[in-house]
Specification:
With about 250 residues, this protein is an alpha/beta fold. It has 10 helices and 8 strands.
């Protein structure tokens, strides 16, 4: 893989906010069930990267998180593993066909390439569980996206526009959403998706921030991201910075 662990062992990590949980040193300490642990090993992951060591226990503990770490530092597994673990611990219903789907998790990323990578990781980690991830993005037909969603959807991954489209058509109800991930938040701003993110969090049925866990990831931390974090995250959110952030 592209992870250079020699570089990470001396990287600077900073967590701000009240009472952060202790970082884990290994995947064994992360509290993953056997199926997830096996899928992690099968992915060739031997030890967690810094954003995983700190991010996984923060998310497991239920706290909201704004995490800044450079591209290639392992942010995807940092949020997918604890979300999948918590979904399974809470006894998520096995996915099945229905005309309206009510996913427990929504993951947003700005481009089809980025959201598809997240989806493929989610499929890999959810292998052998009853959790069904689905991905939707522009460029494939809306009809196809909707058919995939209606087959069953616990984790809905999408680009902002296509997500809003499918939600607007009444195919996805948001009242069961417990986890909302805004990945590559800085790029979403650069690409003009701020109004779409606002519409998503304010969509009918979306639980208020007090009733969901919101996780934001970014490679940089400009003022606009701080502003969005203050708006979308609970006031006691934790702020994790790994390495040099622009
Ligand atoms: P980011 O989202 O921070 O840019 P990714 O989550 O896409 O980074 O991870 C970058 C690459 O490193 C991917 O190929 C991923 O599968 C791999 N990777 C992530 N975590 C680990 C790990 N703990 N051990 C080995 N490889 C990993
Ligand atoms: Mg990423």
């Amino acid at each position: 893989t592209g992870i250079n662990f020699a570089k990470y062992d001396e990287i600077l990590v900073e967590v701000s906010g009240a009472n952060p949980p202790t970082a884990v040193l290994t995947f064994d300490e992360a509290g993953l069930c056997d199926t997830l642990s096996r899928n992690v090993s099968r992915s060739g992951y031997v030890k967690p990267t810094p954003v995983q060591k700190y991010g996984i226990p923060i998310i497991m503990s239920g706290r909201d998180l704004m995490a800044c770490a450079q591209t290639g530092s392992g942010k995807t597994a940092a949020f997918l593993l604890p979300i999948l673990q918590k979904m399974m611990a809470d006894g998520v219903a096995a996915s099945r066909f229905s005309e309206v789907q009510e996913p427990e998790a929504i993951i947003v990323a700005p481009t089809r390439e980025l959201i598809n990578q997240i989806y493929l990781e989610a499929r890999k980690f959810a292998y052998g569980t009853c959790v069904r991830p689905v991905v939707v993005y522009g460029g494939i037909s809306t009809g196809y996206s909707i058919r995939e969603v209606l087959k069953g959807c616990n984790v809905l991954c999408g680009t902002p526009g296509r997500l809003l489209d499918i939600i607007g058509r009444g195919k996805v109800g948001l009242s069961k959403v417990r986890y909302l991930v805004l990945d590559e938040a800085d790029r979403m701003l650069d690409m003009g998706f701020e109004p779409a993110m606002r519409r998503l969090v304010a969509s009918p049925g979306m639980p208020p921030k007090e009733d969901r866990q919101t996780l934001m990831f970014s490679a940089t931390y400009p003022d606009e991201i701080q502003r969005l974090a203050a708006e979308f995250l609970k006031t006691d959110y934790l702020f994790l910075v790994v390495g040099q952030v622009g």
